[in-house]
TrEMBL record:
Keywords of the record: Acyltransferase, Cytoplasm, Iron, Metal-binding, Transferase, tRNA processing
Stated name of the protein: tRNA N6-adenosine threonylcarbamoyltransferase
InterPro entries noted in UniProt: ATPase_NBD (IPR043129), Gcp-like_dom (IPR000905), KAE1/TsaD (IPR017861), Peptidase_M22_CS (IPR017860), TsaD (IPR022450)
Cofactor annotation remark: Binds 1 Fe(2+) ion per subunit.
EC number(s) given by UniProt: 2.3.1.234
Cofactor: Fe(2+)
Family annotation (PROSITE patterns): GLYCOPROTEASE
Originating gene: tsaD
Signal peptide segment: none
Reaction(s) this enzyme catalyzes, per UniProt: L-threonylcarbamoyladenylate + adenosine(37) in tRNA = N(6)-L-threonylcarbamoyladenosine(37) in tRNA + AMP + H(+)
NCBIfam families named among the record's database cross-references: gcp_kae1, T6A_TsaD_YgjD
Compartments where located: Cytoplasm
Pfam families attached to this UniProt entry: TsaD (PF00814)
Amino acid sequence: MNVNILAIESSCDETSASIISNGKILNNIVATQSVHEKYGGVVPELASRAHQQHLIPVVNEAISSSGINKNELSAIAFTKGPGLMGSLMVGVSFAKSFAYALGIPLIAINHMEAHILAHFIDEPKPNFPFICLTVSGGHTQLVLVRDHLDMEVVGETMDDAVGEAFDKTAKLMGLPYPGGPILDKYAKEGNPTAFQFPISDMPGLTFSFSGIKTAVLYFLRDNLKENPKFVEENLADICASIQHTLIKTLMQKLKKAAKQYKIKEIAIAGGVSANSGLRKELENLSNQYGWQVYIPKFEYCTDNAAMIAMAAHYKYQKSEFCGFDVSPEARMKI
Ligand code: KG4
Ligand code: ZN
């Protein structure tokens, strides 16, 4: 019998739906919310409202473009957490009602596990055990992945996420939200060692990114006092230097984790894995240390429902369903 699962992602500011059939992703429909741009960050209340507006059209498109009738669905999967409570509620409530109406089971998915399982959508797939550096707007984690559903967080940030550091430092320079991809674009033209910013020195596999944010704040304030055109005259060099520092911080801990666990299968996941400097540095390290490096396709790096569908595929095989009394968990852990 065919196993067809509809998956829904609504944890932050992308409303997405995807259908997976017998382990193969058929589509990945994403509606991005542009409403947040003018506020310089995601406004939770507006995100929930936009999910309400986008969800049904996105689900309809996923079902109609899959060629599968809704009565042929075997289960409905949704992001249970972590994420914005109001945004999660929209996806969870919809998934419950739809599954209840169709009389099929529900599958609850952890968003951070799903980012990692995005590696199993296409070839080449990492071999177990591997280490995944998950870098997004809300998280920075080193995860030891023993099997599809057997993961352990071995390191994480004690304050800001690296995506947040990209976005906040970009904002300090007057760049629009989300600043990560824009900073990346300017960094390509700049000198990464033009300016020095501190690299945090946390014990073990713990990250910290709040220091660089403060360092950039003071650096800009002092230089703008001397020269009000400092940012526009040096934009590429400042972006390249910030990006260089953030990547160096990430790579220091990744190297440490690889050594500690004696693992050479290395993956990256989450929105920041779209960063061109990070991708290039991983290639360098793979040559230097003999690592096998895995980077997902761009559309599976940022938030999407295909990764939720992939995670649901593995949970379905183990009959890991949840009850209809399930509720979202904003701070859900791996
Ligand atoms: O995984 P994601 O789409 O959403 C969360 O779950 O947070 O990650 C979004 C984050 C944002 O901070 C965004 O600025 C960052 O990923 N990002 C980038 C790049 N593309 C997206 N950061 C640096 N360079 C990029 N090219
Ligand atoms: Zn995410």
